[in-house]
Design a protein that fits this description.
heterodimer; A: alpha+beta; 3 domains; 36 helices; 25 strands; B: alpha/beta; four-stranded antiparallel β-sheet; 8 helices; 10 strands
Chain lengths: 990, 249
């Protein structure tokens, strides 16, 4: 039977070409989506700066949802620093390094800010010198930094040993440093002495009492290196040599520096109290002194080394200086033994001045050769129950930069949103192409019935034949899919959606899934397409084989109408859910309707054809009359080409306009909700220096300025008895945001946004039981569980996201710990703008931008991504449509020849075919527009309060032109070809 | 020219072939210097074994195909040198066809099929004439059916009406009974003969069935692209013997 099927397939190669093309495209699209999805789940950044560590211990950067995919957490979660010493003592461990990263950026001697290298996050570019031991094959030129004002930088910066640079580190104002070493490694960043790094990153343990000599013993016996510096001397024969010897001097200097900073903070608070609403509120709330201190520090900490010197010797400084001095391995070890095994995340509370005190980002271990697995197993035993992850090999990449690595979750999202549309369209196209191919063989199949094939055999034959064709097309299709996924990744990287260093995961799983899926679809579709012919009595089948079944099947029509009704129901979604997900229902509704049209089409086309033919004037020209008669009589064939064309129209209109409408509504929300005219940010520094806010507020003409940050929250909530978990972008605001943002608050107010509080958008307030005054449980961007009170409910959720965190709540749970940007509202005068511009220019790394971007300049990357998706899917649709039309026209060779035999001139045949093409194009456009209308009207109502969507005007006419040209060209060319064969020959050889 | 040639006495022959040759690409010589004349009101049968060139002869004589050499006149009009469109228009006006495979357009009803050539020529169908024909072939109650709903004999009779609807100068029938059972074949042959006898129609029929050919006034026997014999008032028996002899060569 199979051989038979193959031989028949070879005979019908032209009509099966359409099937092959459909399957090829489908395989490419499904494989590509699969590769994206798999990469989103399994792709790892290269180990990069951890390349030299054999075992890495880091916090879990994923939130695990029962029965669902884990959600990536973008903010760095920390590890207790004391664990370093414990791990260092494990047998087989050569070296244990507690790595910490904090915002740092270098300004070269010419005053230029050096950009972070590709794949590096400025928010965690600063490290302690010991972290160089985690690099793979790093060569050090010069000597390790030994004093607090010495630093090592990457050789790629182009600096030389001895250069004097300024470094803006963790929000402190730029300070002068001398370069003592160049680190030759593509992953090298900025290295301070370990003590300085601990101090700059505010990681020193809080309890001064812990800073005893106890740890000194540990250091002596340890082979490993902690965040501290002492131990380094023992092991670090090469790189660490200089460090240990300098510890004493180092600590001393540090103490002084820190004292200055703190004293200054206090002074700053006092000075600003009158003007700073933020500080005032905190003072009023007055629940804890720490919060107050925090505000002060953020506002003004360490304004300048010189300023610090002036204010030096303040009393406040003393206890904290002790803390900093204790910032060596010794002190940390002390704390850890007290707290071993405790969950890392609860270690820091949101309300302390140094919420991440006593932690490191991760611990890297170097082990003796061959000991990796054994040590890893032992480390797992040590950290069991703490929630920490022990990573080796490629998994180390997950610990490098959670903020960068978490971008891969975008791939999952993307693949998820693509999957629906890709499956619908490829399924539709493939089944459609099979329908045409089987219809073209109806006569063969009928004749086979006549010579004794059973209905089952006929269906098996159809399935076998289609499977053979699909198998041929699958191989190049899948290969193309991998290429397509790679192209798509390039696009995403190009648009800064995806980090350059995140590779795709290439495994056979997407290919396998594609094969299973498509073969199932093809076999089922082929059986269905051959169903009618196979079930008919043999003689009737032969008789019917030259025309079409007279009455379209009723269940088919009913199913189609049902789908169209369902799509109408689906298109109501944007009215109920004013989110991007709600809007995506629009395009799904459109496509479902187009599939409904494909099913109900024959009945509709026939009815319309009958009506038109009956009303034709008697004098109408013969080609027109013939064309309309054909449309009526070949309703199924006509539907077969009208419905994919209509689908193309529907797809372009709904998909494109859903995007642009949401975009318009979102930017409308953002525009009207943003009162500040300027945004001051410092992405290149990893965050704004802490004195920026005060400096901006002091400028003439500035009415208000408030910090604005974004992070991610994971919000599990109960819905319909299930727990749904959603990860969403969240703003981080202070009460001062009232003056620069208007979120459309309907209940409560942003004034209460202090302590453990949040504001939520009205879209989520209701369904998630998060009304004003209620308490919500969230997980912050580093995975820390928090409980917060809702102090405000706002309307502009589309522009500002579903949830806003108070800055107090988010403190200590972001990677950088700094404010990302300031929104500034001025009196609109040129003076104010000049002041701001001058301020930004004077401080390298600060970027001033207008909050009202000119149209088009700020096209978000998802628009490009969606545009690419539209182009690819539309190309696939059009190709398949063209194939189908060509196949359908080629199948009419006999009919064309018969017409010519009875005296139809070639010109009349062409005229008839063109008129058919016209009818097809018109039907596709009308039905496509009709099917898109309801979803788009409802979309406009839901998002813009008007019954039409927003978006450029050109897609509609462009779609119309495409449809007309496609139908014309794909009918004209095969017709002309058919006309070249003498009619007498054509009828003879059907 | 054609309108001038009304005078029956001086009317040009329905078909006149002079020295017609047809060579197909590849050098196959299907017709070799064939000359023949078919007068109005006569019934000519063309016989011959497969590959003898009888179908090519018909295609050339009917203007379906252009000869590579020689002259073909249909109702006095030369077709050599006419392009496809002109030939089609000439066929539409002067020639009717009946094929073995009927070649009815499946999407059109029987009535639409019958009037199709007239519509194509933008001519008003002669309702009375068509009703006469339809009643004569016994299809009056089948006019609104689709071809697929008719029996083979009925389809062939519908095709015959279509061929005659435009009152052509000549009707070509290519194995008209080849696909029919004996009874239907008889009916169709009777009809053809009656058209000639009663209505003065001219019919050229290609067939390999001696019994069918025996209904014609004249029978040509072809072999290797040439006319090898012309028999007037042929008898089925003699024809069969002649064909058998040709087949044995």
């Amino acid at each position: 039977m199979f051989q038979f099927a193959l031989r028949m397939a070879a005979h019908r190669i032209s009509s099966l070409l359409a099937v092959a093309c459909a399957v090829l495209g489908a395989a490419a699209l499904i494989t590509a989506t699969g590769v994206l999805a798999e990469s989103g789940l399994r792709s790892r950044l290269p180990p990069g700066r951890l390349g030299g560590a054999d075992v890495v211990v880091a916090a879990d950067q994923e939130y695990h949802v029962a029965g669902d995919l884990p959600i990536a957490l973008p903010e760095r979660a920390t590890v207790p620093a004391g664990l370093t010493a414990r791990l260092a003592r494990l047998p087989g461990v050569v070296l244990a390094v507690g790595d910490l990263g904090f915002p740092a950026a270098v300004t070269d001697p010419h005053g230029r800010l050096l950009p972070a290298a590709a794949g590096q996050d400025p928010a965690a570019a600063g490290h302690g010198w010991s972290s160089t031991r985690l690099l793979a094959d790093a060569r050090v030129e010069g000597r390790a930094p030994a004093t607090p004002t010495e630093v090592a930088v990457a050789a790629t910066t182009g600096l030389s040993v001895g250069d004097c640079v300024h470094i803006t580190a963790n929000g402190h104002a730029a300070t002068a440093y001398r370069v003592t070493a160049l680190v030759h490694s593509p992953d090298a960043e900025i290295y301070f002495t370990d003590t300085r790094a601990t101090q700059l990153s505010n990681r020193a343990p809080k309890k001064p009492s812990a800073a005893s000599g106890e740890g000194g013993m540990g250091a002596g016996t340890d082979t490993g290196v902690g965040t501290g510096t002492d131990a380094n001397a023992g092991v670090g024969t090469d790189t660490g040599a200089g460090v240990g010897t300098d510890t004493g001097a180092d600590a001393g200097t540090d103490t002084g520096a820190d004292a200055d900073a703190d004293a200054d903070a206090d002074v700053g608070t006092n000075a600003n109290a009158g003007t700073d609403a933020d500080a005032g509120t905190n003072a009023n709330a007055g629940t804890d002194a720490d919060a107050d201190a925090d505000v002060g520090t953020n506002a003004n900490a360490g304004t300048d080394a010189d300023a610090g010197a002036v204010a030096g010797g303040a009393v406040v400084a003393v206890p904290r200086s002790a803390v900093v001095t204790g910032g060596s391995a010794l002190a940390i070890r002390g704390t850890v033994s007290a707290r071993t095994g405790g969950p890392a995340r609860t270690a820091s509370s949101a309300h302390t001045a140094a919420p991440r005190a006593g932690t490191v980002d991760l611990i890297g271990l170097r082990v003796f050769p061959g000991d990796r697995e054994r040590v890893a197993a032992e480390v797992r035993g040590v950290v069991a129950g703490s929630g920490l992850k022990v990573l080796t090999g490629a998994d180390r990449g997950t610990a490098v930069a959670p903020g960068v690595g978490s971008a891969r979750s975008l791939l999952v999202l993307l693949a998820g949103s693509l999957a629906g549309i890709v499956l619908l369209i490829t399924g539709f196209v493939t089944t459609g192409a099979l329908g045409v191919a089987i219809a073209g063989q109806r006569r063969d199949l009928a004749l086979m019935r006549a010579v004794g094939a059973t209905p089952r055999q006929i269906r098996r034959l159809a399935a076998a034949q289609s499977t053979a064709v699909a198998a041929v097309a699958l191989v190049p299709g899948i290969a193309l899919g991998y290429l397509l996924a790679d192209r798509f990744r390039t696009l995403l990287v190009h648009r800064d959606v995806l980090p350059d260093r995140l590779p795709l995961t290439l495994s056979p799983f997407p290919a396998l899934a594609t094969v299973l899926l498509l073969v199932a679809v093809v076999r089922t579709a082929a059986r269905c397409a051959a169903w009618r012919t196979s079930k008919m009595p043999a003689t009737e089948a032969v008789a019917e084989s030259r025309s079409e079944p007279r009455a379209p099947s009723r269940p088919r029509t009913a199913a189609g109408l049902l789908l169209i009704a369902a799509s109408c129901a689906l298109s109501v979604t944007p009215l109920l859910q004013r989110t991007a997900i709600g809007a995506s229902a629009t395009s799904i509704a459109g496509i479902v309707a187009a599939i409904g049209l494909a099913l109900a089409g024959p009945a509709l086309v026939r009815a319309a054809g009958e009506a038109v033919v009956r009303r034709l004037r008697p004098g109408v020209s013969a080609p027109t009359w013939l064309a309309l008669s054909n449309v009526r009589a070949y309703a199924q064939r006509v539907t077969g080409v009208v419905s994919p064309l209509a689908m193309a129209v529907v797809f372009v209109l709904t998909y494109a306009l859903a995007q642009t409408t949401v975009l318009a509504a979102t930017s409308d929300d953002t525009r009207t909700g943003t009162l500040g005219q300027y945004r001051l940010s410092a992405a290149a520094l990893g965050g704004l220096p802490t004195d920026t806010l005060a400096a901006v507020r002091r400028l003439p003409g500035v009415r208000a300025a408030a910090p604005v940050g974004t992070t991610t929250v994971v919000w599990p909530y109960r819905q319909f008895g299930d727990t749904d978990t959603e990860s969403a972008a969240a703003l981080i605001l202070t009460p001062a945001a009232r003056d620069v943002l208007d979120l459309g608050v309907t209940q409560g107010g942003l004034a209460g946004l202090t302590g453990a509080t949040v504001a939520v958008s009205s879209e989520v307030a209701g369904p998630r039981d998060a009304g004003l005054g209620s308490r919500v449980r969230l997980f912050l961007g580093d995975g820390a569980p928090v409980e917060a009170r809702v102090v405000a409910v706002y309307d502009r959720g589309l522009g500002f996201g579903p949830v806003v965190l108070s800055r107090d709540l988010a403190a200590g749970h972001t990677t950088s710990g700094l404010d990302q940007s300031l929104l500034v509202r001025t009196d609109g005068t040129a003076t104010a703008e000049r002041g701001l511009t001058a301020l930004a220019a004077a401080r390298p790394g600060l970027a001033l931008s207008d909050t009202a971007p000119e149209a088009g300049a700020d096209t978000p990357p998802e628009v490009w991504v969606n545009l690419a998706v539209i182009v690819v899917l539309l190309g696939y649709l059009l190709l398949s449509i063209a194939n189908r039309l060509v196949a359908a026209t080629a199948q009419r060779r006999t009919e064309i020849a018969a017409l010519r035999l009875v005296g139809t001139t070639p010109r009349q045949i062409l005229a008839m075919m063109r008129r058919e093409a016209g009818v097809i194009a018109a039907a596709a456009l009308v039905s496509g527009a009709a099917l898109s209308a309801l979803p788009l009207v409802l979309l406009g109502e839901g998002f813009l309060d008007r019954p039409w969507p927003a978006g450029p005007g050109w897609p509609a006419p462009a779609a119309a032109v495409t449809v007309v040209v496609t139908s014309y060209v794909t009918i004209e060319l095969p017709t002309r070809r058919a006309l070249r064969v003498p009619p007498a020959e054509a009828v003879r050889a059907p | 020219m054609s309108t001038a040639a009304v005078d029956t006495a001086r009317r040009a022959p329905a078909i006149a072939l002079a020295g017609v040759g047809r060579t197909y690409p590849g050098g196959v010589r299907a017709l070799d210097d064939v000359s023949l004349t078919v007068e109005h009101g006569t019934f000519l049968a063309v016989m011959g074994p497969s590959g003898s060139g009888k179908s090519t002869l018909m295609h050339c004589a009917a203007g379906l195909d252009a000869p590579t050499s020689g002259s073909v006149r249909i109702d006095g009009r030369e077709i050599a040198g006419l392009n496809e469109t002109r030939r089609t228009e000439l066929r539409r006006e002067r020639v009717g066809f009946v094929f073995q495979a009927y070649n009815l357009i499946p999407s059109l009803s029987v009535e639409d099929n019958i009037t199709l050539p007239l519509r194509l020529a933008a001519r008003r169908p002669d309702r009375d004439w068509i009703r006469t024909l339809v009643e004569r072939v016994g299809l009056a109650d089948r006019l609104h059916h689709r071809p697929a709903e008719l029996s083979g004999g009925q389809q062939q009779r519908a095709a015959l009406v279509r061929a005659l609807a435009a009152r052509p100068a000549v009707v070509f029938a290519d194995e008209p009974t080849g696909a029919l059972d004996l009874r239907s074949a008889h009916q169709v042959l009777d009809l053809l003969r009656a058209l000639v006898d009663d209505l003065g129609q001219t019919v050229v029929m290609v067939t390999h069935d001696p019994a069918a050919a025996a209904r014609a006034h004249t029978a040509l026997v072809m072999a290797d692209g040439r006319v090898v014999e012309t028999l007037h008032h042929p008898m089925a028996g003699r024809l069969a013997a002649r064909l058998a002899a040709l087949g044995d060569r």
